[in-house]
Amino acid sequence: MVALILHTGVGSRIIKKDIEKVRQKLIEKISETGLNMLRGGEDALDVVEKIINIMESSGLFNAGIGSVVQSDGRQRMDAGIMSSDLRCGAVAGVSDIKFPISIARKIIDTTNSICLIGDYAREFGRKYKIPEISKKNSDVKGQSTTNKFIGNTVGAVVLDQNGKLTTGTSTGGLFKALAGRIGDCPMIGAGIYANQFGGASCTGIGEDIIKTTLARYAIFQVEQGYSAQEAANRSIDYFKNTTQSVAGIIILTKNGEYGISHNGKHMNWKYSID
Ligand code: GLY
Fold first, then answer.
1. What is the DSSP string of 72-124?
2. Among 205, 210, 211, 250, which residue has the most ligand 1 atoms within 8 Å of its CB, making it the best to mutate?
3. CATH top-level class for 3-266?
4. Which of 137, 184, 219, 255 is deepest in the core (most CB within 10 A)?
5. How much is the average pLDDT of 64-90?
6. The model's pTM
7. 101-147 residue pLDDT tens
8. Residue from 33, 110, 146, 153 carrying the catalytic annotation
9. Distance 51 CA to ligand 1 centre (A)
10. 151 lines ligand 1 (CB under 6 A)
């Protein structure tokens, strides 16, 4: 059995039906790509990296080249990736990188560290030839501030043929956030978490996701015997009651069951199993 679930972020504003449809079509296409990779026996870590790369390089989501800008007009991106064997990597506040999730992945493969920040993360990425954002694209920095992008933070949780789960999340953060601000995505246990029971990827207001360690909270519910959907509902209820803020979560368990919950106005997601 293989399974995957992905999301393109929770939104706190109602969006037009046609935009929602375009977004959903895209997610379904990306999901099919991931499912085909899994059917071919590819590793969960590779599949999460690949499908998040597609979204980071599309310019259509608040991640990678489509990232929103911070208060100084500069894009700074966060990303994190974690597998059920507890191996994890993350980058925080990195600029000019097309695939932030790939730097996070390289940290797992080549170091004993977990998270690199800013220029150090970019230099590390250069060493491994992780593609940078071309001059042409960096010249349109701020484009995404006009809400031309059609999606938010992106995330995925994948179960491969060997029973390995991997979760990943990538984001440009919050529009016009204080320069240098870091959100929940690179914080293990907040924006992402995975262990032998399941994996979770969060979206929403990072500060409040950090305060509630939302991804770890969700997987703890699974450990306590709740189904993936019950765990997702319990997590968002707890989050809402504790912070009165907005978040969404996707969960995939070791049995391939999924859960999804959010308290925003919309959240596109897609679950596939084979
Ligand atoms: N959840 C994305 C952020 O707050 O940075």
1. TS---EEEEEEETTS-EEEEEEE-SBS-HHHHHHHHHHH-S--EEEHHHHHHH
2. 205
3. alpha beta
4. 184
5. 97
6. 0.94
7. 999 999 999 999 999 999 999 999 999 999 999 755 554 444 444 34
8. 153
9. 19
10. no
